[in-house]
Design goal:
heterodimer; A: 253 residues; six-stranded mixed sheet; 10 helices; 36% helix; B: mainly alpha; MetI-like fold; 74% helix; binds adenosine-5'-diphosphate; binds magnesium ion
Amino acid sequence: MEVHTIIDVHNVNFYYGRTKALTDITMSFRKNMVTALIGPSGCGKSTLLRLLNRMNDLIDGTRVEGEILFEGKDIYAANVDPVEIRKKIGMVFQKPNPFPKTIYSNITYGPDLIWSKNKNELDELVENSLKQAVLWDEVKDILNKSAMTLSGGQQQRLCIARALAMKPDILLMDEPTSALDPISTAKIEELIEELKKNYTIIIVTHNMQQAARVSDETAFFYLGKLIEYDKTEKIFTKPDVRQTEDYITGRFG
Amino acid sequence: MNRHTKEKFIKYILFLIALVSVIVLGLIVFSLFREGLPIFKKIGLADFLLGLEWYPTSEPPLFGILPLIVGSLIVTLISTIIAVPLGVLSAIYIAEIAPAVLKEIFKSIIELLAGLPSVVLGFFGMIVVAPWLQETFDLPTGLNIINASAILAIMAIPTISSISEDALYAVPREFKEASYALGATKFETIIRVILPSALSGVSTAVILGMSRAIGETMVVLMVAGGAAAIPESLFDSVRPMTASIAAEMGEAPYRSAHYSALFATGIVLFFLALVFNMIADYVSNKYKQVGSATL
Ligand SMILES: Nc1ncnc2c1ncn2[C@@H]1O[C@H](COP(=O)(O)OP(=O)(O)O)[C@@H](O)[C@H]1O
Ligand SMILES: [Mg+2]
């Protein structure tokens, strides 16, 4: 199978005010693959993830150096609207964060912003997105109930469905299961397996087994630097760098 | 004293303090009713509330307070219509849009506005707004509904703005991030996520702003014009209940019918304030949205 690069990160440094959170990151993410970002807490995984859809723009006093190319175009170029980037690169957060609206309007929130669709199209979109997130059977009769009545795991799958409704090219997930119980976690992992057929997924995780189970490639970060980046199998069986091995085997972090 | 008795003692003291405020309030309400109710021996409730003529010192005196009630309600309503958009929009600007430096400046200005004594604002209404209104619109007097409402709005804006601002700050960051991550602009996020989540707080702010306006005395005494008649236009003078009580209480003989009628007007005002507070309570519960995700 031919592999395409969808995102190219070039010599990226990132600062929160004076603190440098990422140092000279260069890496490419491959299309239709699952890439896991691992590393001890505070090493900059979330920061990198949020750079990819320009979510860090929302934090005052941050600064990016270097280039991040999405399908060949620098998303930090002056003429790029971050809003357009976020429509193509969806995000799922650590803590499930559905809007305090109905399940239905959670899904249509994003699409409503761009297309004025008719009711049928929207119904169809809601159904498809929820099916893709394997939530449809559980909620098809309560679409007009508040999303807040769902369990944590269901809320997280709703958030995934909500992101999918935008038909993004890439799905960024920041520790999507860290707040969930093992059964919900397993469901989300299965879902990731399904989704990678159609989407590129970049997932931050604290859980080594999860990275090993769901990802094709794994990047290990330490203190804001990319230490090692390779096929997941390689990283977990015979990593080149000592620090990677120490982290994976639980000797630190 | 061991720890247990000490805690009990503190609890007791706090209870007594709470009790004192309740008792004081109770006594105030009691005396309001004791002084006010005797008027109803002379005049029926309906004639009092719906009577169109307030001539408390004529012979025989007429105690119809409908013009006063209408006066209070109309200036409250108009001032709300002016103050709500300004107060809520300034809160949105301060909480969500303004850069850090401007945010502080705007907040200080609004706090300053809140600290202005009402008599100063009333003065401003009398010597600046009134002559301007009178000349511009060629009116017999500039002391009228519009003037009073505008000044009351200036007083209500800080209340509405600062309470709305707190409500906006209380919207969980997760909701905003979710919205931005779906490609919403700042404006869309404010309209579709932030404001709806803050609705209960914002409505409370609006109603508290209104109760501030309906109870305000000095401003309406100085700039509403004082005519006890049902107004026909926004440029007519009115005599809100508070203004009437403040102006006449000094000259009403102790326990005369006039005196008692003024207290009864106070009772009406008391109930109106109560209703406002109950509405505020109700909306703040009704629109309360369940917070961010729980597991
Ligand atoms: N909003 C922020 N403001 C300032 N510093 C931050 C902010 N977010 C993260 N950081 C800092 O940046 C570094 C990387 O954080 P983060 O990307 O969240 O790490 P990770 O997701 O790997 O745990 C940490 O040292 C953290 O303290
Ligand atoms: Mg993180």
